[in-house]
Design goal:
This protein is an alpha/beta fold and 471 residues long. 54% of the residues lie in helices and 9% in strands. The strands form 3 sheets. An 8-stranded mixed β-sheet has the order 3-2-1-4-5-6-7-10, sandwiched between helices. A two-stranded antiparallel ribbon has the order 8-9. A two-stranded antiparallel ribbon has the order 11-12. The protein is globular and about 80 Å long.
Length: 471
């Protein structure tokens, strides 16, 4: 019986396209789906004439693989992954490798890695970003889990991933247990931030500056040819240029945003580790607020605010908008990297922060020229605590700051909703301030709860309590 290089379970859009990608790099693939009619359809249509075959049962799937067996699971996160693992275990041999390529929550990946390693198997939980096109043509791949498994999948993973300058693959080992899925989760959190920032800039252009869709298209087109060049700027440009019966299609789309959970997980991880993830948190809550469509419609009939009026120079203000977007983007990534640093300390991961930026340079949703600057920052200083302290980024913030403040001030004064842009600026002002009003907050906590406080005139680590009620 001919043995195949890898098994794929799940022939949906992402799984099916990954299978085609793997086969195109001279690997053979055997596929399985609980609904075998999906396998038959896949083999007859997308995989016709390729080194891809189907299996009718889990047992057959496993038997048709070379050792150590490599089984890529592309099924919905959660219960489905655990059920599939339990179905596979009876047919596996020591050293076989299970790979979860879905958006699993990183604690689940940590748990599964330990569970399978104790049984003599290896496990990889890998982030895969880039959507259906990336899956087919080259995604960003972020693997973590059983370190011993990496040598067996590295050539395949790196061959199917996106490539950047000098053919460098956007795939490298991230770390132990749940590290790969954690980094993918942070990627998605930053994605939330990037998208919200772009949406706020769009609303300012439309509702305050009064640009037409054709004018906004030209702005995003110009931005995509400069330092803001990115996949999300590119697709925004295309969206703004798409019309239906001569009406911008985006105007016909209901303003309620969906989410699949990775943004929420990112915020929860920030709360668990104490990372100040303000911008990304606001972006998640912004989607939640957008979902209150009926309530907002009723509230708009009762609650008032200023009517937007713009009297400035449009060209100058658009320039300010670009700088404000860039500065806010720096904050978003700075916060994401802080979260990864906190998590690495919490979970004892040895993360390569410059390498992560490189993995995000191509294939993934947040790919941009901007990420090359992040890699350079960590190449220059692997122990960098905050991107804002890197010379390139601190200079960019300095150049953008006046524009950034003008944009936020104008938006707030005119009642334009900008939770992410304003959060980015207030984070920056908090981080650059050597003395915050938390001294008063600590006094309040000590007053009502005897929580104690440290003193500026005493060594750190010494705590004091005052009897604030004078009798």
């Amino acid at each position: 019986m001919e043995l195949y290089n890898i098994a794929l379970i799940g022939t949906g859009v992402m799984g099916g396209n990954l299978g085609l990608n793997i086969e195109s790099k001279n690997y053979s693939v055997v596929v399985f789906d609980k609904d075998y009619s999906k396998v038959e359809k896949y083999l007859k249509e997308k995989a016709a004439g390729k080194k891809i075959t189907g299996a009718n049962t889990i047992k057959e799937l496993v038997e048709r693989l070379e050792k150590p067996r490599k089984i890529l699971m592309m099924v919905p996160a959660g219960k489905a992954v655990d059920e599939l693992i339990n179905e596979l275990i009876p047919f596996l041999d020591e050293g076989d490798i299970l790979i979860d390529g879905g958006n699993s929550h990183f604690p689940d990946t940590t748990r599964r890695t330990k569970f399978l390693e104790e049984k003599g198997f290896l496990y990889i939980g890998t982030g895969v970003s880039g959507g259906e096109e990336g899956a087919l043509k080259g995604p960003s791949i972020m693997p973590g889990g059983s370190v011993k498994a990496w040598e067996f999948v590295k050539p395949m993973f790196q061959s199917i991933s996106a490539k950047v300058e000098e053919n460098i693959p956007c795939c490298e080992w991230v770390g132990e247990n749940g590290a790969g899925h954690f980094v993918k989760m942070v990627h998605n959190g930053i994605e939330y931030g990037d998208m919200q920032l772009i949406c706020e800039v769009y609303q300012i252009m439309k509702d305050l500056v009064g640009l037409t869709y054709d004018e906004m298209y030209e702005v995003f087109k110009d931005w995509n040819e400069g330092e803001l060049q990115s996949y999300l700027i590119e697709i925004t440009r295309d969206i703004l240029n798409t019309k239906e019966n001569n009406v911008p299609l985006v105007e016909k789309i209901l303003d309620t945003a969906g989410q699949k959970g990775t943004g929420k997980w990112t915020v929860i991880a920030a709360l668990d580790t104490g990372a100040p993830l303000t911008l990304i948190s606001e972006s998640v809550f912004a989607r939640a607020l957008s979902a209150l469509k009926d309530e907002r419609v009723e509230a708009s009939k009762i609650l008032s605010g200023p009517k937007p009026v713009f009297n400035g120079d449009k060209r100058e203000f658009i320039n300010d908008l670009g700088k404000a977007l860039y500065a806010s983007k720096i904050i978003s990534y700075a916060q994401g990297y802080i979260l990864m640093r906190y998590a690495a300390n919490e979970y004892k991961w040895n993360l390569n922060y410059g390498g992560i930026a490189l993995m995000w340079r191509g294939g993934c949703i947040i790919r941009s020229v901007f990420l090359g600057k992040i890699k350079a920052a960590f190449d220059n200083n692997p122990n960098l605590t905050n991107l804002l302290l890197d010379p390139f980024f601190s200079e960019k913030i300095k150049e953008s700051q006046a524009s950034w403040r003008r944009v936020v001030s104008a938006a707030v004064s005119n009642g334009i909703w900008i939770p992410a842009l304003s959060s980015a600026l207030t984070y920056y002002d908090g981080y650059r301030n050597s003395r915050l009003p938390a001294n008063l907050l600590q006094a309040q906590r000590d007053y009502f709860g005897a929580h104690t406080y440290e003193r500026t005139d005493k060594p750190r680590g010494e705590f004091y309590h005052t009897n604030w009620i004078k009798k």
